[in-house]
C-alpha cells in the first residue's frame, strides 16, 4: 500500500532516565506538528584494500543514530500555570521548566540536568497497521519565528538513539491539545524600552551545541547526546528610522547590551512573553520590504545573571 507523507502520528514524552522509553501515549503525548521527518545517519567505514583491482569493496556501518525534525505552533496549554505539551520539547532543548499554579510556566536556559525525550512516529501503512520509528534519548535545538499576522512557529531538530523501525498495530485516534495557536499581533515589541519600531518579523535561535558521546560499550558506539554549550541569536527587521528615533550604530560600535521583549498571544493560558535581557547588535544591513526601506538587525543574546539569556514565560 502507498504510504502518504502527511499520514503520520507524532508522540513525545519526557524520559525519567536518559534513553529509557517512557512509553508515550496517543491520549497524553500526541503533538500537533507539520513537516515531520525522520532520518537515519551513520558512519560508513571504507575498506580501501589492495585486492588486485581498483574496484571498491563494500563499506561497513559504524556509529549511527536517528534524527527528527518538525515544526509546531507556539501556544500554551490553555490554563495559566499548567505546562503544555510543548514543555517536554523545550526541556529537551536545554530549558528548565518552573510552573506556578494558576499563574505562569517559565522556561529558562539551564546548564545542568538537561532533560531528554522519546519520540514515536507512526507512519500509517493501512487502516490497521503502521510503521513505527522510535527515537530515545533525544535532545536538540529550537528556533522561533514570529511574523506579523501569522502563527508563531517553532522549528525543532533532535538527535537520539537508534532503534530498529517495526511494523505495529495502527495507533488509536490521538487526543490533541484544544488550545488554538495565537496570531502574532499586538506583540508590544520592545528594544531598550523603545516600542515605536515597526517590525515585520523576529526570529530567535537557541543555537545549542549538541555532541554525541562515543562509547565502545554501546551497541551503536554512541551512548547518547549532550548539550555542551549554546550561542543564542536572532534577527529583527524594523522599518528604517532616524538616528534620533533609534541609534543602532552607537549600540553596534560600543557593543551595548539592550533588553528585548516580544509577546505572542493575549488570552490567559495562551500567552507567551519572550525576553532577552542583553542583546547586542551583530551588524546593520539595509533591506527592502515592498519598497519600504528596512534595517535588518542580526543580534546575539547574552546572560544577565546567568541561565537567563532567552526566557519564555507562558501566562
What do these coordinates show?
- With 315 residues, the protein is mainly beta.
- The protein has one domain.
- It is built from 2 helices and 19 strands.
- The protein has helices spanning 86-91, 248-254, and strands spanning 8-14, 34-45, 60-73, 95-100, 104-109, 117-124, 129-147, 153-161, 166-169, 190-191, 199-205, 208-214, 222-230, 233-238, 258-264, 272-281, 285-289, 292-302, 311-314.
- The chain has a 17-stranded antiparallel β-sheet that branches.
- The longest helix is centred in the C-terminal third of the chain and has 7 residues, at 248-254.
- The N and C termini lie far apart (46 Å).
- 34% of the residues are buried.
What's the structural blueprint in terms of helices and strands?
Layout: E1 8-14, E2 34-45, E3 60-73, H1 86-91, E4 95-100, E5 104-109, E6 117-124, E7 129-147, E8 153-161, E9 166-169, E10 190-191, E11 199-205, E12 208-214, E13 222-230, E14 233-238, H2 248-254, E15 258-264, E16 272-281, E17 285-289, E18 292-302, E19 311-314
Antiparallel strand pairs: 1-6, 2-3, 3-8, 4-5, 5-19, 6-7, 7-8, 7-9, 7-11, 10-15, 11-14, 12-13, 14-18, 15-16, 16-18, 16-19, 17-18
Labels describing this entry:
315 residues; mainly beta; 17-stranded antiparallel sheet; two-stranded antiparallel sheet; globular
- Please count the helical segments: 2
Average pLDDT, rounded to a whole number, is 96
User: Helical amount among residues, as a percent range?
Assistant: under 10%
Strand content: over 45%
Cα shape = globular
Order of helices and strands: EEEHEEEEEEEEEEEHEEEEE
Describe the largest sheet: 17 strands, antiparallel
Uncertain residue segments? none
List the domain count as a whole number.
1
Amino acid at each position: 500500500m502507498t504510504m502518504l507523507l502527511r499520514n503520520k502520528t507524532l508522540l513525545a514524552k519526557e524520559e525519567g532516565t536518559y534513553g529509557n522509553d517512557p512509553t508515550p501515549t496517543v491520549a497524553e503525548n500526541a503533538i500537533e506538528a507539520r513537516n515531520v521527518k525522520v532520518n537515519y545517519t551513520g558512519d560508513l567505514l571504507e575498506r580501501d584494500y589492495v585486492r588486485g583491482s581498483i574496484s571498491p569493496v563494500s563499506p561497513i556501518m559504524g556509529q549511527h543514530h536517528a534524527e527528527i525534525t518538525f515544526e509546531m505552533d507556539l501556544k500554551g496549554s490553555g490554563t495559566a500555570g499548567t505546562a503544555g505539551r510543548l514543555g517536554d520539547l523545550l526541556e529537551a532543548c536545554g530549558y528548565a521548566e518552573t510552573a506556578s499554579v494558576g499563574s505562569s510556566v517559565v522556561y529558562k536556559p539551564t546548564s545542568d540536568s538537561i532533560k531528554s525525550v522519546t519520540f514515536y512516529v507512526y507512519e500509517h501503512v493501512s487502516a490497521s497497521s503502521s510503521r513505527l520509528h522510535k527515537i530515545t534519548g533525544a535532545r536538540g535545538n529550537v528556533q522561533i519565528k514570529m511574523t506579523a499576522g501569522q502563527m508563531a512557529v517553532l522549528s525543532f531538530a533532535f538527535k537520539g538513539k537508534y532503534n530498529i523501525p517495526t511494523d505495529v498495530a495502527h495507533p488509536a485516534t490521538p487526543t490533541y491539545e484544544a488550545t488554538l495557536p495565537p496570531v502574532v499581533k499586538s506583540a508590544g515589541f520592545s528594544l531598550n524600552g523603545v516600542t515605536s519600531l515597526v517590525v515585520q518579523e523576529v526570529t530567535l535561535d537557541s543555537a545549542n551545541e549538541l555532541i554525541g558521546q562515543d562509547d565502545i560499550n554501546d551497541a551503536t558506539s554512541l551512548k547518547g547526546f549532550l548539550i555542551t554549550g549554546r550561542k543564542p541569536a536572532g534577527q529583527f527587521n524594523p522599518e528604517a528610522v532616524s538616528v534620533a528615533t533609534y541609534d543602532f550604530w552607537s549600540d553596534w560600535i560600543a557593543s551595548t547590551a539592550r533588553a528585548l521583549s516580544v509577546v505572542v498571544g493575549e488570552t490567559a493560558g495562551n500567552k507567551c512573553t519572550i525576553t532577552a535581557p542583553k542583546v547586542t547588535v551583530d551588524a546593520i544591513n539595509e533591506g527592502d520590504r515592498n519598497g519600504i526601506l528596512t534595517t535588518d538587525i542580526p543580534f546575539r543574546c547574552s546572560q544577565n545573571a546567568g541561565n537567563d539569556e532567552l526566557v519564555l514565560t507562558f501566562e
